[in-house]
TrEMBL record:
GO MF entries: kinase activity
Keyword Kinase: yes
Keyword Transferase listed: yes
Family: Belongs to the protein kinase superfamily. ADCK protein kinase family.
Transmembrane spans: none
The name this protein goes by in its record: AarF/ABC1/UbiB kinase family protein
UniProt superkingdom: Bacteria
Taxonomic placement: Bacteria, Bacillati, Mycoplasmatota, Mollicutes, Acholeplasmatales
Keywords of the record: Kinase, Transferase
ABC1 atypical kinase-like domain mapped to chain residues: 59-299
Family annotation (CDD domains): ABC1_ADCK3-like
């Protein structure tokens, strides 16, 4: 991506006069789309309308034409592969930044979906990342504080890692197997009864094509749009995802509402190409922080954040930090998500910790992103909810699971 195009992209995202032009963003390439998707989460400093508009890039990107679809299938597969299907629908049922999905029926009768990579993005994406990295380093040279507070290089590295993983659909298979094996190992120690995984047809899948079970349900994104997502279901997503984050430390790296399908009473993890891992220090420290925050124990929150840092602060520096943290949370207790954003508070808290001298692992961003997804779902589906109070119901179960699994 040329630097001038990068500047134009940010002007689109940060415009206060009109919503970003999604067609323009898509024409700039995969990196531009991934950056815009990342900013769709940033309700801490973008308005809700802009974030909601950018979030369309998760599941509603421009699909390729039918003839191009046939050409790619021939390129990615062979006649033997095609002979396995009795029918393949040319019109996609979903299109995202990297791939799109078509319904199909196997000759053996199973209803499946075929996901395939739209085109060879890799070389241009890697070239754009190198260009943007140089641009960021140029900016940081003149404004070094940006590196500590916003960590743009770390965020770019995260975008690069999970996008390159997405571009090889074999990762979606292997990462799905990792998440499923965690489920199988611990399902008797933690209530994961509502979590399911689609069947993958590995013999029909490769780097560019993935064939999996058709799940006759709706994405959480669609349910939220239709105002048909009960709050108890949103909490269950936190309950399941929280287990992977707080107890295991290995979790779905991109669990946005478009990557969850609800069928009946069950939730299916899909698009598991990106998987994230965090060290025990962050994993346990974040759980401690969220536990203290749930009961508005702000002194405990201050200590927990310091415990999360691999470079902690002490003495007068800590005292100044603590006073400012109380100021950040002075309007938080008892407020609904529509009144005070958890994401905004979390980002302000991390920023304050960094400005006070704390240093965190780069593994922070995937977890913060997960918290952003949850906050966004609650804001969209149950804006009058006091989320921190509702989260209390899971804390004892998380504690028991931690004791059973990690101690």
């Amino acid at each position: 991506m040329r630097w001038i195009m990068f500047i134009r992209l940010f002007k689109q995202i940060f415009s206060k006069k009109k919503l970003p032009n999604l067609d323009f963003i898509q024409k700039q390439g995969l990196l531009a789309v991934k950056i815009a998707q990342t900013f769709a989460l940033r309700i801490d400093f973008l308005n809700e309308a802009t974030c909601t508009h950018l979030a369309k890039l998760y599941t509603k990107t421009t699909p390729i034409e039918g003839e191009d679809f046939k050409t790619l299938l021939k390129q990615y597969t062979d006649e033997t592969w095609l002979e396995s299907f009795s029918h393949i629908e040319e019109t996609p049922i979903g299109s995202a930044s990297v791939g799109q999905v078509h319904r199909a029926t196997l000759k053996t009768g199973e209803e499946v979906v075929i996901k395939f990579i739209k085109k060879d993005f890799k070389k241009k994406f890697e070239k754009d990342v190198r260009s943007l990295r140089r641009f960021i380093k140029f900016i940081i040279f003149f404004y070094p504080k940006l590196a500590k507070v916003a960590d743009p290089v770390g965020i770019l590295e995260h975008i690069e890692a999970y996008t390159l993983a997405e571009l090889d659909l074999r990762n979606e298979i292997s990462h799905g197997e990792v998440l499923k094996s965690i489920y199988e190992e611990h399902k008797n120690k933690f209530d994961l009864s509502r979590l399911k995984f689609p069947i993958i047809y590995k013999s029909l899948s490769n780097e560019h094509v993935l064939v999996s079970e058709f799940i006759d349900g709706k994405t959480v994104d669609d349910l939220l749009e239709e105002k048909a997502m009960p709050f108890e279901d949103i909490l269950e997503i936190f309950h399941i995802h929280g287990f992977y984050i707080f107890i295991i430390g290995t979790f779905h790296g991109d669990l946005h509402p478009g990557n969850l399908i609800k069928k009946g009473n069950d939730f299916y993890f899909i698009d598991t190409g990106a998987i994230s891992e965090v060290g025990k220090k962050i994993q346990m420290g974040l759980f401690e922080f969220m536990e203290k925050l749930a009961y508005y124990d702000f002194p405990g929150c201050a200590l927990a954040l310091n415990h999360m840092a691999y470079k902690e602060i002490h003495g007068k520096t800590y005292d100044v930090y603590f006073t400012k943290l109380l100021e950040i949370y002075k309007d938080f207790e008892g407020k609904s998500v529509s009144e005070v954003s958890l994401t905004r508070k979390m980002m302000e808290t991390i920023k304050h910790g960094v400005n006070s001298g704390m240093v965190f692992e780069k593994g922070m961003f995937p977890i913060i992103k997960s918290m952003m997804y949850l906050d966004g779902m609650v804001l969209k589906g149950a804006p009058d909810t006091v989320l921190m109070i509702e989260m209390r119901r899971f804390l004892e179960e998380f504690h028991k699971a931690n004791e059973a699994i990690n101690i």
